[in-house]
Design goal:
Order of helices and strands: EEHHHH
Strand order of the largest sheet: 1-2
Protein name: Copper transport protein
Largest sheet: 2 strands, antiparallel
Pfam families: Ctr
Distance between the termini: 47 Å
Strand content: under 5%
Number of helices: 4
Shape: elongated
Membrane topology: Multi-pass membrane protein
Number of strands: 2
Structural class: mainly alpha
Family: Belongs to the copper transporter (Ctr) (TC 1.A.56) family. SLC31A subfamily.
Subcellular location: Late endosome membrane; Membrane
């Protein structure tokens, strides 16, 4: 049938997940609800991991542009040979180190973890889509409520992780 029905007789995904009584339907809806909550939590966890910096940031102000004011003393008094225009043209040694972005073991491990989480998320998404395509209203409501609960619980957890 290609329309939503409220029967307690449904086969979900595989032949062995065949429901024929109301108790089995309640259990199936609960399992689908939990899978949907896990799906939402994985989405948030993956996004949280992806937003973390993988390398230390380089200093944003080069050493040549120091923010401290110049110090004038009798030894450093401006003269014709040591005028500001002359000193500004002399090359200065850049003591700032620039971080070279190189793939490290940690960044590859993070990328591998993100890839694994993405695959699990895609598989769970397709499983939930196929559950909804059983056109059973109770299973559909289980996916909707699971998505609601997963989103509701995942984002406060995200605030505590960051």
């Amino acid at each position: 049938m290609m329309y939503f029905g409220g029967s307690s007789n449904v086969t979900l995904l595989f032949d062995f997940w065949s429901v024929h009584e109301p108790g089995g339907m309640v259990l199936s809806v609960f399992v689908v609800l939990l899978l949907t909550v896990i799906y939402e939590l994985l989405k948030v966890w993956k996004n949280t991991l992806a937003q973390r910096p993988t390398h230390p940031s380089a200093p944003s102000i080069p050493a040549a542009f120091s923010t401290s004011p110049p110090c004038f003393s009798p030894e450093n008094s401006p003269t014709l040979t040591n005028s500001p225009s002359e000193t500004s043209l002399t090359p200065t040694e850049n003591t700032a180190t620039t971080a070279v972005i190189t793939p490290t073991l940690n960044s590859w491990l993070l990328h591998s973890l993100l890839t694994g989480l993405h695959i699990v998320q895609v598989v769970l998404g397709y499983i939930l889509m196929l559950c909804v395509m059983s056109y059973n209203i109770w299973i559909f409501l289980g996916v909707i409520v699971g998505s609601l609960l997963g989103y509701f619980f995942a984002f406060p957890l995200l605030a505590h992780v960051n």
